[in-house]
Amino acid sequence: MMSRSLGACGLAALVFAVALATAVGAEPYPSRPIRIVVPYAAGGATDLITRVVAHDLTASLGVSVIVENHAGGGGTLATKMVALADPDGYTLLTATNGPFAIGPAIYRNVGYDPVRSFAPIAYLAGAPDLLVARADLPVKTLPDLFAYARAHPGVLNYGAGAGTPANLIIEWLKKKAGVDIVYIPHRGGAPATTDLLAGQTQLGIEIVAPLLPYVREGKLTPLAVTGATRSPELPQVPTLIESGFAGADFQAAFGVVAPAGTPPAIIDRLNRAINASLASEAMRATLKQIGFQAHIGTPQDLARFIADEMARWAEVASVTGVKIE
After folding, report:
1. What mean pLDDT comes out for the span 108-121?
2. Residues 86, 91, 95, 99: is their CA dihedral positive or negative?
3. Which of the four, 23, 174, 204, 288, has the lowest number of CB atoms within 10 Å?
4. CA-CA distance, 155 to 181, in Å (whole number)?
5. Residues 224-243 pLDDT 10s
6. Within 13 Å, how many C-alpha atoms sit on residue 264's CB side?
């Protein structure tokens, strides 16, 4: 009896020792820099909100949160790269409608599954886009634009990242209005805006905040807002819905995801940190200033949103007929 008890005690001690060694040897998370990959060029909407959030997370998590830009393929190249990264919580991705909802609908093989390849963490924010024209183009409204485009087929052009919401929105409008406007591929919203201001293109589309200074300076003419309601910064500019395009409520959306297989404890830690950041008065004020509305929720909320967006943008892609090999 005593030998059995001693044996049991020895086994318990061994189990405890192994558990203790494991606990002592395990690194607390996070213990080294975290990188958030932005799938577009620096300076655009995705880059802008990621840097704001990363700055806050650096303070709250106690480690550097580094933003890396990897543009190409409408965001799909960077998205595939992160899908294949180690699921250890140190490589994250800013997920947008482009590679998550549009990419699978227009690319033959994006190399990842938006649902199975990733672990959702948090939905950051959303923002409507603003459709603009150069001020030297003789148009003041969306009907003016379409009338001019019909009279000058193939003359007007616009820039946007391939397979991004901006790209699909204008292609959708072209189909609905029956006009010929040429698409010029860009690596993101910021390069497209640069070319628009330089006169390389005549039309542009991006979230409101980066375009607002140029609208106020008279360099760009605002034509329509893509959200369900008018922008508080530009109350005189109608929405696409008001302009006769029923159901045209298009929002640029941004969330954070990790590679599938990332431990739930890490997902929870990051979700709580991001939500705490989004809930702060300072962050809300900053997001409002740059044209974003924060969304606080669970990883499951982001997962549901991704599924809904995939269905929504698949329908838009079908209307446009856009396909990228």
Report:
1. 95
2. negative
3. 23
4. 7
5. 999 999 998 999 999 999 99
6. 2
Q: Give me the long-range contacts of 183-186 (CB less than 8 A, separation at least 24).
A: 183/157, 183/158, 183/159, 184/157, 184/158, 184/159, 185/159, 185/160, 185/161, 186/159, 186/160, 186/161, 186/162
The pair of structure tokens assigned to 123 is 């939905």
Task: Give per-residue pLDDT as tens, 50-91.
Answer: 999 999 999 999 999 999 999 988 899 999 999 999 999 999
| Cα 101 from Cα 114, distance rounded (Å) | 8
End-to-end Cα, the chain, rounded Å: 73
CA gap 76, 39 in Å, rounded: 7
Residues for the chain: how many in total?
Answer: 325
Query: Cα dihedral sign for 240, 44, 73, 161?
Result: positive
3-state secondary structure the chain: CHHHHHHHHHHHHHHHHHHHHHHHHCCCCCCCCEEEEECCCCCCHHHHHHHHHHHHHHHHHCCCEEEEECCCHHHHHHHHHHHCCCCCCCEEEEEEHHHHHHHHHHECCCCCCCCCCEEEEEEEEEEEEEEEEECCCCCCCHHHHHHHHHHCCCCCEEEEECCCHHHHHHHHHHHHHCCCCEEEEECCHHHHHHHHHHCCCCEEEEEHHHHHHHHHCCCEEEEEECCCCCCCCCCCCCECCCCCCCCCCCEEEEEEEEECCCCHHHHHHHHHHHHHHHHCHHHHHHHHHCCCEECCCCHHHHHHHHHHHHHHHHHHHHHHCCCEC
